């Protein structure tokens, strides 16, 4: 029976082109109407060491999580391929490099290590490449040719992708690559189709393959970003690098500052001057920004901070994923320091969420932290091109009264004060991180501090309508309420679907807005459920503890730390045993 | 002349300046500096500069950190940002990049600028962003009541160095010369006229300008006094080539004397704000190089193209 | 009827000597066997502006909170005195400055503003001072003389304190001060003792008056502190200033660094080298330390950080008090970053808690954050001298195996690895903020990260016995469980005592160790209570939300933000309406 | 000579050094630098220094931040602390103050030391704490794959300056001269013998010593190459008065040439660690000035005395 989804992993050493192989497969698949998710794993942080892995999940349906196991392994390096065997599905197909004429010791061969139900195919990858191009390069294209045949896919879309990639390198390079592909495709008549992919629905609207960093680049540009200030850090650097090139085209500026403190300082200054500004970082950088984010809370200066999470604490696991920066995002300021915390659950969502961040930051004059992670930031997926077109602009609450009556921190019902920016004649004020009165002058007395604190908190009620509400799936009267957030939501959603099939009564809640809370909605949901289970990728149970503390409820916590995105199977496993039946 | 007399003289001087109808430059709040504090002279130099250069109140932004000196913007009738300790320069950078038409000043203390904020000065200077940094140097932490500062001389006893300061002081003039600042000067609160003139030139300069102000703390620093500076300071000789970096460094490192005046000025170096506007003009869809962020932006992306 | 406690407030401008007045009263009271609490309020941060207030609570019993109201006001400046009248008890006594021969306009006089039941006494303070010393200085000593008479206290102890204070300034200064005091004492025969203090029990063991900063200075010295690195900030600066002088006498070093990041960096280095080290800061500084504290978690380097809380967020209210830095102390690290958080509830306790911090930090190789606040750090109280004598020394877990088998991060049952410090022959290792294996080498694979994360968490169970357990007062089966922490606990305790008198069923819990939690004890306590009420001085309900999240319980939150230490009366007010009866 | 040949030559050089039985200085992990990376030469200079000065493995502590260069201590058989980005100097300060008998090195990149960590260098230098700072300068952010660094020349195109670097580069030699460092030198990975000798002198020097190493990143920096430095660098003339600060600054700011060697060395300046020990000796109960923190301590406090 043809499968609705297949995962193909390519592994190799530096220069073997694993990542390019994944990209090639993904792009062809998208042309055929499939959805794809490309997850790359890099070795140590410095170039040239260890194993690079590119994993492409190809599916008839939308995919936002990694699969439980790999169905096809393309081993561009046999030693690495043997290491990977333990991660494969029981009945996986393995494409490895065979050298015609040279016999490898049986006990060192790929088939020797393959499981009983696996099908190893030796294909003369390097040998063919050598023959076609005179060099070793291109063996990955041979492998992809063989793969296409194996899966019963037409040559066409692959040829087209090769054209897009190589035409600019000259006719010769292109024709060589086509030849490499065709050799692979023709290598051996595959008689029994061991693995077959269901046909995708005909491609509808235009789709593009992008990473979260790419999506956010476009979101920011289309949200009228004027100043980006940042400092490089994995996995956020690419966002700055993209913007460095793109933003000036649209009248914006990118500066790399001396550190993250200066970055968030410059973002503060730019917003103070009335322009949309942002930075992007990861845990260590977010730590350094704590003081100035908190200044933003006190001075009611909008800030937009993208924090792409990686494994922690400290330098931690710079190239791995975890959703463990929620605590510092929520509570990383001294004093009573409320700020907006948003977390898209996948690449496509990161576009709209970042745009919301700008609008809410400006309208409510507050720092907004957008949590993504390495999985969202650096994986690639196919999305409809149209979702990347939405544009946003100023949401500033203008002042309409007489200049002399202007008070920068006027206490209002919503907690939001009209905002006049520097350069406006007839008005002057100083914004201060000291507690202040309505004019901005320092004021330390108790009633003033209480009134101003309340004002700063009140805004967070007013803004709820402008922020994504929790999204529920499944029966409203589900016995179990499963709540999740961040990139692991994809696996949770897929896992819960399986549990539905198994007959469990589950309501699923996706939480994108973490602070402020859509309190009425959530309180209702908690009341209806008999049991609450919060699933997330960290050890503390950060969202779980927050929700329990906020609502005074009890809930089961499912922790999935480790550094790799969880798979749907892991989720069902962990959740199942806690479900009420 | 006794210190008291000097102080009186300064106050008289200041009051004359005040007469120059610069009252409309005063902020809503009255300065909370101790009587005789050197920071007053810095404040008046800014009032003077505003009226001299005809900078309108709403066109000026003053960014500061924390310290007695940090309260500065509240005493000027302009837009002010009184942020956290040591981070005024990055905030000012953001202001200037977002809106290059504003005149941007940074005012701060020696602790704020060379201690906690000391990592930012080199980069502001070498970027040549068009802002003026007035560093009110009293060689002490005033607001926190008398701890050692980065400019405190070796051996000085302070509340945190009861057995003497073990470190050698930093000199912001030499530092910013090495950082690549295009305008470097030193004034002294005890000579307000000279200081006024320097601040005017600093603000007129296109590019990063640093003005160190020897600004005695009469409450917590019994060593770096008006008296001492009247003795040790001397105006730089006139008629110099201000673009001669080596000479500037020589005057700056002349051990015996503390020179005041403009050490170095190199006009015509592209500022960071000019650079950014230039890039926009070159590659942007608008050819006027406005810094706006654009609503009409449309990001290129081929069909099915892997962008990263 | 004589009162068991009286609060005397002195107010004046700069140079009036309000603080010295408070100190004089407090010291004499201690000689008489009373307990005292001295609470000073400074005006803006820069000298010479505004009102300085010194409030001395004198009591037959131990006191750790401010009183509900002031019983006696000493006005060294009449304008300020008039402002203060609204804070006085209904029947307060006011001592103000009268100028013989000069009549003040009735409508501007102190008596005009005094309440109906108040007793204003005009005493020619300045005039007397002028007469005795030829200068205006010393009017506060005249006032104290009058006060002593008013309260029926003997001259003796006051004379003795004056001697201690002024003898070193010469006989003349001393005799002038004695004369000033005696003039005040003799000024007017007070016929009806309007306010009278119950006699204190005869002074027993030796008592000293100290602030929290002082107590911690001595605690640190006596805990073998070798390196203090810090950066000035109110209200913690004094601790560094004290140590700068004291520590070298005992073989230790104090350095003021360029910022808080360098301070915590130097503390990290000193501990890494095997010596006890600490820093002290307040909210803004703690924010800046976030990244390196988190490094301490990952590298298992001990750290001791005293954070004296002030009002926030941002620069906030630098000279005011709030307990609002609990969130950042607990959650201020990115990733899963557990650390010890302790919070003494009063000055005396801060001694032992800081010493515990050193012992636990070293034994379990973990950062420890000790939260005090402006009220503890800068107020003064009388404590038995003997409690400041305890000494502590190294608690390092030594390694006894062969050098070649040493693994710095050996996984053990307790989670604690034996610790060999640099300089030890035959061994070498690199400590890294990257996730690492047992030897310290980078290790990013899932099982290693999971095992190391568990190890880092496991330590926190092992250390519970070395940390102060929650302390309970009142009936074990109290219907209501009131939990509190930080310096406001004193007011809560006093408030709860009143509620006991009113017949309410309350069990009181003082929480000094906030993380890790003494889970069994607390779970038991929560189960026994019908209602839980958490009282604290912040707006978020930081401890409340933490406990609710940790235990999955519901609880009422009482928030007392504002900037001034709450009084027992405020607490009873706020708690009463939530009590189950 | 072609760049490839130069590189080969270096590797041969390195292999000779290696022969000098310094294998016992190697750490447990093998260096993960790319082949040809300039950081190798820095590593070997440390191996060489250890054997030359007879510093035993356990007596050496190397502190680093984050970067390719940050991995350094893991490759040396000594005690190492691989901390967070930019904070190696403060950590090293703590190590040295806690135990002055240890030899303390700091190793780090240009981004680590002059970017994010740039606020610490001035204070380490002016305190003259006795540590040696080896700054491996490749004018790029290596570990994060090629972003602009504080020492990147103006105009260079990097992944974050696609339209060119707008700022002027910092020079750690000039900087540390102005900060008051008592030993300032520059080496080049392409001349390992000279570098080895410099590092030996730097470690021998009592006080703060800075060694900038021009250390090409062969993977991400196509501008600051071995080739370029072979052309532009020149050893400083011998026979100079190393205590002449003005002369040192002159050589450091000679535009055309990049000099290598020891620019400045001032012996006999009291180090911070000596100062601290001296204070303990003066006021402490132990007259040997040990830094211990004491168990026998008894804090003075009179009866009923307000201590604050
Ligand atoms: C992060 C942080 N650390 C410390 C402080 C406390 N603080 C306030 S001002 C100041 C130093 C003031 O000295 P300086 O910058 O020289 O200014 P001055 O008062 O002398 O004008 C310090 C340490 C703070 N507000 N924030
Ligand atoms: C606080 C923080 N910000 C950013 C990073 C990411 N990061 C790691 S190394 C590095 C720069 C490396 O450049 P450099 O110091 O010059 O060392 P090199 O790799 O060139 O030797 C950066 C930005 C980090 N680890 N921590
Ligand atoms: S304390 Fe010193 S610096 Fe501050 S206002 Fe007073 S004199 Fe000026
Ligand atoms: S990336 Fe550059 S600096 Fe890093 S190891 Fe490779 S060559 Fe060296
Ligand atoms: Mg100062
Ligand atoms: Mg570098």
Q: Would you give an account of this structure?
A:
Chain A is of the alpha/beta class. Chain A has 4 domains: 5-186, Pyruvate-ferredoxin oxidoreductase, PFOR, domain III (Pyruvate-ferredoxin Oxidoreductase, domain 3); 209-388, Rossmann fold, CATH 3.40.50.970; 403-465, no CATH class; 471-576, 3-Layer(aba) Sandwich (Rossmann fold), CATH 3.40.50. Chain A is built from 19 helices and 21 strands. Chain A has an 8-stranded mixed sheet, sandwiched between helices. Chain A starts with a strand and ends in a 5-residue tail after the last helix. Chain B is of the alpha/beta class and 308 residues long. Chain B folds into 2 domains: 3-267, Rossmann fold (3-Layer(aba) Sandwich), CATH 3.40.50.970; 275-307, no CATH class. Chain B is 34% helix and 15% strand. Chain B has helices at 3-19, 39-53, 88-98, 110-116, 121-127, 172-179, 192-204, 226-232, 245-252, 272-283; strands at 60-64, 79-82, 103-109, 132-137, 183-188, 209-214, 233-235, 258-265. In chain B, strands 2-1-3-4-6-5-8-7 form an 8-stranded mixed sheet, sandwiched between helices. In chain B, α5 packs across α6. The longest helix of chain B is centred in the first third of the chain and has 17 residues, at 3-19. The termini of chain B are far apart. At the C-D interface, α1, β7, α8, α9 and α10 of C face β1, β2, α3 and α10 of D. The complex binds thiamine diphosphate (TPP) (2 copies), iron/sulfur cluster (2 copies) and magnesium ion (MG) (2 copies). One iron/sulfur cluster (SF4) binds next to loops of chain D.
């Amino acid at each position: 029976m043809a499968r609705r989804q297949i995962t193909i992993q390519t592994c190799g050493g530096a220069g073997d082109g694993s990542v390019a192989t994944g990209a090639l497969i993904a792009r062809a698949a998208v042309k055929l109407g499939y959805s794809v998710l490309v997850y790359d794993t890099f070795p140590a942080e410095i170039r040239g060491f260890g194993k690079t892995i590119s994993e492409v999940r190809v599916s008839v349906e939308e995919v936002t999580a990694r699969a439980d196991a790999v169905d096809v392994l393309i081993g561009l390096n046999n030693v690495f391929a043997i290491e990977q065997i333990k991660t494969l599905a029981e009945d996986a197909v393995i494409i490895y490099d065979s050298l015609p004429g040279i016999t490898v010791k049986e006990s060192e061969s790929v088939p020797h290590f393959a499981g009983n139900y696996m099908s190893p195919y030796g294909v003369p990858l390097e040998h063919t490449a050598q023959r076609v191009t005179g060099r070793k390069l291109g063996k990955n294209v041979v492998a992809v040719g063989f793969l296409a045949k194996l899966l019963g896919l037409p040559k066409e879309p692959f040829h087209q992708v090769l054209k897009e990639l190589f035409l600019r390198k000259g006719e010769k390079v292109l024709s060589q690559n086509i030849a490499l592909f065709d050799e692979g495709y023709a290598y051996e008549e595959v008689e029994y189709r061991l693995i077959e992919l269901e046909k995708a629905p005909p491609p509808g609207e235009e789709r593009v393959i992008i990473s979260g960093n790419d999506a956010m680049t476009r979101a920011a540009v289309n949200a009228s970003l004027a100043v980006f200030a940042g400092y490089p850090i994995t996995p956020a650097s690419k966002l700055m690098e993209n913007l460095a090139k793109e933003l000036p085209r649209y009248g914006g500026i990118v500066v790399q500052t001396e550190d993250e403190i200066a970055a968030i300082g410059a973002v503060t200054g730019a917003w103070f001057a009335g322009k949309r500004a942002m930075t992007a970082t990861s845990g260590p950088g977010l730590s350094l920004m704590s003081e100035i984010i908190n200044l933003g809370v006190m001075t009611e200066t909008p800030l937009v901070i993208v924090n792409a999470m990686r494994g922690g604490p400290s330098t931690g696991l710079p190239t791995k994923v975890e959703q463990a920066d929620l605590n510092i995002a929520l509570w990383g300021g001294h004093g009573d320091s409320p700020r907006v915390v948003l977390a898209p659950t996948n690449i496509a969502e990161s576009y709209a969420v970042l745009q919301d961040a700008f609008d809410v930051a400006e309208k409510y004059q507050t720092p907004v932290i957008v949590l993504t992670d390495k999985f969202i930031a650096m994986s690639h997926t196919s999305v409809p091109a149209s979702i990347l077109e939405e544009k946003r602009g100023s949401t500033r609450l203008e002042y309409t009264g007489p200049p002399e009556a202007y008070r920068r921190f006027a206490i209002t019902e919503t907690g939001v004060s009209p905002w006049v920016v520097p350069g406006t004649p007839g008005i002057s004020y100083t914004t201060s991180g000291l507690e202040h009165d309505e004019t901005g002058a320092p004021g330390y007395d108790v009633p003033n501090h209480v009134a101003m604190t309340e004002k700063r908190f009140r805004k967070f009620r007013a803004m709820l309508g402008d922020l994504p509400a929790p999204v529920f799936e499944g029966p409203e009267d589900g016995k179990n309420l499963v709540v999740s957030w961040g990139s692991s939501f994809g696996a949770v959603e897929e896992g819960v679907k399986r549990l539905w099939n198994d007959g469990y009564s589950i309501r699923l809640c996706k939480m994108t807005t973490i602070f402020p809370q859509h309190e009425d909605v959530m309180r209702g949901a908690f009341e209806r459920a008999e049991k609450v289970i919060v699933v997330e990728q960290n050890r503390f149970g950060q969202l779980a503890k927050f929700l329990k503390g906020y609502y005074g409820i009890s809930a089961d916590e499912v922790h999935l730390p480790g550094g790799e995105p969880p798979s749907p199977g892991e989720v069902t496993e962990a959740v199942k045993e806690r479900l009420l039946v | 002349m006794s210190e008291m007399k000097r102080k009186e003289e300064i106050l008289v001087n200041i009051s004359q300046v005040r007469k120059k109808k610069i009252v409309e430059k005063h902020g809503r709040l009255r300065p909370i500096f101790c009587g005789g504090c050197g920071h007053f002279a810095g404040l008046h130099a800014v009032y003077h500069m505003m009226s001299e250069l005809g900078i309108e109140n709403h066109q000026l932004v003053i960014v500061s950190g924390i310290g007695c000196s940090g309260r500065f913007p509240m005493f000027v009738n302009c837009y002010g940002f009184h942020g956290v300790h040591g981070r005024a320069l990055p905030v000012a950078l953001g202001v200037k990049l977002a809106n290059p038409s504003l005149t941007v000043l940074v005012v701060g203390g020696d602790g704020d600028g060379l201690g906690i904020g000391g990592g930012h000065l080199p980069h502001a200077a070498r970027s040549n962003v068009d802002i003026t940094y007035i560093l009110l140097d009293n060689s002490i932490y005033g607001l926190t009541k008398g701890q050692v500062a980065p400019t405190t001389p070796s051996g000085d006893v302070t509340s945190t160095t009861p057995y003497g300061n073990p470190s050698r002081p930093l000199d912001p003039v030499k530092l910013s010369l090495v950082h690549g600042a295009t305008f470097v000067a030193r004034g002294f609160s005890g000579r307000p006229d000279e200081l006024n003139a320097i601040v005017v030139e600093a603000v007129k300069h296109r590019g990063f300008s640093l003005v160190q102000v020897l600004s005695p703390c009469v409450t917590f620093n019994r060593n770096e006094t008006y008296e001492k500076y009247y003795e040790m300071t001397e105006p730089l000789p006139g008629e110099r080539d201000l673009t001669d970096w080596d000479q500037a460094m020589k005057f700056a490192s002349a051990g015996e004397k503390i020179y005041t005046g403009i050490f170095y000025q190199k006009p015509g170096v592209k500022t960071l704000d000019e650079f950014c506007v230039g890039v926009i003009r070159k590659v942007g869809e608008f050819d006027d190089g406005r810094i706006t962020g654009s609503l009409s932006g449309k990001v290129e992306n081929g069909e099915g193209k892997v962008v990263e």
